[in-house]
Amino acid sequence: MDLNLAGRRAVVTGASKGIGRAVSLALADEGVGLALCARDGGPLAEVAREVESRGVPVHAVQADVTNKSDIDRFIQDAATTLSGIDILVNNAGGAIPGDFFSLTDEEWQADIDIKLFSMIRCIRAAHPFLKQSDAGRIINIGAVFAHYPKPNFLAATTLRAAGHNLGKALAMQFAPDGILVNTVHIGYVETPQWQGIHQRRAPDKSWAEFHEQIAASEIPLHRFGKPEEVAGLVAFLASDRAAYITGVDIDVAGGMGIST
């Protein structure tokens, strides 16, 4: 589908794997120039090569979005290299399993830094450039835990709810600037992160057994999502076809949380 995005310029955080990689490639397929960052430089360079093969400009930087200096430098360099920013996709995150009693202060702080403060700082740094765009978009990748609480993913449940409300408040505040702010809430998506969760939660089971058990018990569609299914919605929200949509959150979760 041609979304008429060719020539626009996007920043994607957490771009080296999973959803971030899929979003980067989906936008590149639409002709969007990209600035990408991630902590893991090797996989990021691989994604940058994939983007470049699609014939669009790409600027890839190994950066830690929990570090304010890294964020400020990355966003400024992105705007300089791409001659502006039209789209910001806040994708850095992950999910640390743990309930109220098992999560340590250090784990809480690490999750706050990557899920909430990275989003706040990226938006703050990118806002002046988005304001100059005729099609400013902020798309935050959240999780259905924002409205579907999971005690065994308590940090994600708490912080995704905070991100959800941040997005809605900024949609109102940034509307006069012509910047649309929306959130994509994901459920369980097949990403490398889930391999780690599998090892922590059910090391005695094969990946296939673990995957089938989780899907059957928690997901109405009885399967995990694919990163490309999330990326397709992100590309749509970045386009002019979504020019009258702001302040919403859309679940890409196979029906998880459908009754909440």
UniProtKB/TrEMBL annotation:
One Pfam match: adh_short_C2
Molecular function GO labels: oxidoreductase activity
Keyword ATP-binding attributed: no
Keyword tags: Oxidoreductase
Domain of life per record: Bacteria
UniProt family annotation: Belongs to the short-chain dehydrogenases/reductases (SDR) family.
Protein name as it appears in the record: Short-chain alcohol dehydrogenase like protein
Organism: Actinospica robiniae DSM 44927
Lineage, top ranks: Bacteria, Bacillati, Actinomycetota, Actinomycetes, Catenulisporales
